[in-house]
Structure formats: structure tokens, C-alpha cells
Amino acid sequence: MDERTRRNHLLVWLLLLGLLGLNIASSFLDLGIFNPILTTAVAALQAFIIVTFFMSMRSAAPVPRIAAAAGFFWLLLMIGLTLTDYQTRFEDIALGRLASKPGWEAPAAGRVPNPLSESGYSPVSRPPTLAAAAPDAASGERVYASVCILCHARGVGGAPRTGDKAAWLKRSEQGVDTLVDHAVNGYKGMPPKGGHPELSEQDVRNAIGYMLYAAGIQSPRR
After folding, report:
1. Can you tell me the distance from the alpha carbon of 163 to that of 153, in angstroms, rounded to the nearest whole number?
2. What's the domain count of the chain?
3. For residue range 174-210, what is the model confidence (pLDDT) as tens digits?
4. Percentage helix, strand, coil, to 5, in the chain?
């Protein structure tokens, strides 16, 4: 390996380290829905650089180039299909087409404490099916059962699991208004209002109050 090639490889290696640092830094930033987009784009750029320089695709024969391009095309296709499936699951849960089982057993139907409501309680009306669970501002449990349960029951994508006091206590330290703002406007992998733009801010606030209650947090900081 001559001096020029060695220098080029060193520069490419430093560039890859810089992109890795960018990915790590972006994980600490609240960019909403752009977090996964930026992470995926940087990872794809890293893969392209590795294939181009370290696998010598610039000087390769046509067949290896076609094979490498086909690999990138297949990767983009799989990412697109995965995102399409992810976006439709919120609607499926709301319409009752997927009946997810909650990871936390809700209390018996009655009056459920809601630490975010003015009276301290939210009346519970447990619907027979998720399809009949039209979210309203009166019941955080109903909003949770029709929207939030999809991710929070199992902790999908890093969402705090329902009933996990340690996880919710850490988040409640940010203040309830911050939690509501994240849920309304979207945060990291969570879409705005859980993918249901018809929900009001009060619906979202009630649902958060219900999940805080489920975690045993009775008096969160505003």
C-alpha cells in the first residue's frame, strides 16, 4: 500500500468516526420524528462509504457493482415496508383490529384516581371492545386503552411500560407539562398524539395521568 492510499484510508476512517459521533450525539437531541430518519440516513451513508472505499467498488467490475446496488435497494425496500407496517398499527389498535393485551391490569371499573385532573378522579367507563372505545376528555383510561396501549403495554421502541414506577418516576421529574408537550408534538420514535391527531390536548393529559396512576405516582410535579 503506497503513501497516498494509506492517507486516503486514514481520512475515510476519520470520516466514519465523525459520522458515528454524529449518530451518538443525535440520540441525545429531541428532533421528534427526524431522530430515526437522521440515524438511518447516517448509517446508510456509512455503509456507502465502506462499500465504495474499503471494498474497492469504485474500481470493481460491473457485476459486483450491480450486486452492491441491489443490496442497497433491498435494504431501502425493507425499511419502507417496515415503516408502512408501523404507521398502520396505530389505526388497527384504535379500530379494534388488533387486540393487544395490556401489561398492567387496570383496576375494577369505578372511579380511578387521576393526579392531573382538577377533582383528582376520572370516571371510568370500561368499553366492551376496543372498537367502541372512542377517546374523550373524561377518561384517561379510555384513551390509553384505544391508543397508548399499543406501545406502552410492552415498552415498544423504548416507551415506558405501563406500571413501571421507576421508568415513569424518572420521566415525571421533567414535569407533567413537558410530558404532555412530548406526547402532543411527538418525541423520538413516538408520533404526535400517538398517531391520532383527533385527540385533544386534554385527552393526552388525561391518558398521561392515568399511566402515572398505574405506575403508583399520585402527585407528579407540574
Report:
1. 9
2. 2
3. 888 888 898 999 887 788 888 888 888 888 888 888 8
4. 60, 5, 35
